[in-house]
Amino acid sequence: MSIFLEISLVLVLATVVAGIMRLFKQPLIMGHILTGIIAGTVLFAQTHSKETIEIFSEFGVATLLFIVGLHLSPKVAREVGKVSALVGVGQVLFTSSIGYFASLALGFDNISAIYIGLAITFSSTIIVLKILSDKHDIEKLYGKISIGLLLVQDIFAVLSLIFITAFANGSSAASIALLLLIKGVVVGGVLIIISIYLLPLLENFFAKSQEFLFIFSLGWGFGMASLFSYIGFSIEIGALIAGVALSVSPYSHEISSKLKPLRDFFIIMFFVFLGSQFTLEGALDLIGPITFFTLFILLAEPFIIILLLSYFGYNKKTSFFTGVAMAQVSEFSLILVLLGVKVGHISSNVLTLITLLALITIAFSTYLINFAGRIYPLFIGFLSKLEVEKPVVARDIISKYDVVLFGCNRIGFDFLTMFKELGQSFLVVDFDPNIVESLNNMGINTRYGDAEDVELLDEIQVASANMVVSTIPEYDINELLITTIKSKNTDAILIVICHDVDDALRLYSKGANYVILPHFIGGHFAALLAAKHGFAVDKFDKERDRQIKALEARKKMGHKHPTRE
């Protein structure tokens, strides 16, 4: 068969399996991996298309990370960079150390134990980002922290690859690392200059043609990925940095939307290729290590991250969601172990172990991430014992408030500017320690806490408030607030937010006084302006100036409009 026909058969198979997954309401990623297992067993053994699909999978990785980079403003790095770096380094050290000693106890030799310890440390950037993107959680606090942790892990993975390559070639790891650092600084400096001074001059030229904008995006993203690969970094890091360089462009969201269909096709190929790596050869001899490390990755590794995040003051829900997101073996782990086999450091049974661990943990973690909201309530009692109180002194000096605002980001900012005139009778509750500290420094009554914490709700006497505003989009949280408050104070005004029409109607039936649906209210407000001002250009100019001033204030605070596919 021709390669075209072979790949066409793989796509047909992927469609059928994905359709079955959708009927049973299972994640499509699992369908793609299952397609790869079937294709690897039945089709690839008789054909030559596996190499082509492997190349397609590399394009998928690069495209996905390029798109993620488009949504990573440098301000996000400042927002969660410190905690991501500290927790990331701590997680790598703890996990790799435990993995190393566990491997020795399970009978592996010293070098194999080092490789296994490193391999189980890294989480899958592709899996996590794909699921977070599908759930529209990339811009949530735990999503930002997860991305930061992945970047830290990727840096360690790249350093590990450099170290292994240096030893295999008999070179000095220090000299290679120094040369790579110099190259990275030079290329990074050039990119900063280009993104600040050159790209803004060319943006209007790019945007005049939608086709040219698309071609430019591909050329820039894949070109930067190839350049970074050429100088010694990975394709993944190059693609991500290429996206970050364009993140400040006003056309970044348009570029992202144009590339998403291409991303989806190539990512399917990645998961198919991953599934094709499945083999039972030598697996029966590894039942013990596979069982132990599977449980360690799915249970102990998230626990390590939860402990570290709790120590830095993040609440149990943010810590739990972040920890669950990291519970799988990375594609970098496969590359790392495969390189170790090629240079003769380890035997193929270690590659079999890590491959099976990758498939098993990715399968389980896909469900864990997608259903984290349902799993979380089962662990609230246990997680509460681990939660460390954030050492930020609340400035509230009274026990009862007229207005309570839950969540002070984006939409909460508008309420904050309006309600802070109330002074001491206004309270903000947020679970982001950075926001709490910032508001406290501004002299605003602020409590660090979770809206799901019933004890906190009783402590701040939320049911006695005249008005409660929740800018948290989760339905369950808003339902809890409504039922808790309305059961004690039917006159309280409750304003909540959601992104689903059916959920909005359900919240109204529970007693909400007003439900904000951001994607609808914007058009409604614009229509009211049109009806109010008619053809009066001067009045619209005043509205424009007012909004520009508000947007500039938001920009200073690092707010970005969320994107939804």
TrEMBL record:
Q: Which GO terms describe its biological process?
A: potassium ion transport; proton transmembrane transport
Membrane protein topology class: Multi-pass membrane protein
**Which family does this protein fall into?**
Belongs to the monovalent cation:proton antiporter 2 (CPA2) transporter (TC 2.A.37) family.
Mind telling me what this protein is named? Cation:proton antiporter
Domain (Cation/H+ exchanger transmembrane) ranges: 13-365
Query: Which cell locations does it reside in?
Result: Membrane
Report the main location listed first in the record: membrane
Q: Which InterPro entries match?
A: Cation/H_exchanger_TM (IPR006153), Na+/solute_symporter_sf (IPR038770), NAD(P)-bd_dom_sf (IPR036291), RCK_N (IPR003148)
Name the keywords, alphabetized: Membrane, Transmembrane, Transmembrane helix, Transport
Q: Which GO terms describe its cellular component?
A: membrane
Q: Which GO terms describe its molecular function?
A: antiporter activity
The UniProt record lists the RCK N-terminal domain at 403-518
Write one Pfam family the protein is assigned to.
Na_H_Exchanger
- Membrane-crossing residues? 6-24, 31-49, 55-73, 85-108, 114-133, 145-168, 174-200, 212-231, 265-284, 290-312, 319-340, 346-369
| Superkingdom to which the source organism belongs | Bacteria
